[in-house]
Amino acid sequence: MEAKQDLGPGLNWKQAIKRLGCSKSMFYYLVENGAFPNAYRLGRNKGVRVPLADIDAFRGQKRLA
Q1: Angle subtended at Cα 48 by Cα 39 and Cα 20, rounded to the nearest 5 degrees
Q2: What number of other Cβ atoms are within 10 A of residue 64's Cβ?
Q3: How far apart are CA 51 and CA 59, in angstroms?
Q4: How far apart are CA 30 and CA 46, in angstroms?
Q5: Per-residue confidence (pLDDT) for residue 42, from 0 to 100
Q6: Could you report the per-residue pLDDT of 12-40, keeping only the tens digit for each?
Q7: According to DSSP H, which parts of the chain are helical?
Q8: pLDDT tier at 1 (50, 70, 90 boundaries)?
Q9: Cα 58 from Cα 49, distance rounded (Å)
Q10: 3-class DSSP assignment, residue 41
Q11: pLDDT score recorded for residue 4
Q12: Which residue has the higher pLDDT, 60 or 1?
């Protein structure tokens, strides 16, 4: 997972699940399965960041149950 500078700010899991309307476990499932191609890890223990552009693109093409 590599950071992209032109895709907007990176959201942490709390910010992302608020925008997506899903659970933390669903968020990490989506990250692991490639739903957010530009997701990147901050350090070893800091967690994952997903660019706002990836979240918006995902919301535009899919709906979570």
Answers
A1: 75
A2: 12
A3: 13
A4: 18
A5: 83
A6: 999 999 999 999 999 999 999 999 999 99
A7: 13-20, 24-32, 52-61
A8: low
A9: 15
A10: strand
A11: 47
A12: 60
pLDDT of 44 reads 80
34-48 burial, b at 16+ Cβ within 10 Å, e below that, comes to ebbebbeeeeeeeeb
Which two three-digit tokens encode residue 20? 């997506």
Buried b / exposed e over 4-28, threshold 16 CB at 10 Å, is eeebeebbeeeebbeebeeeeeebe
Residue labelled with tokens 């223990």? 45
Written as six digits, the tokens of 43 are 């350090």
pLDDT for position 61:
83
Rounded Cα gap, residues 23 and 18, in angstroms: 9
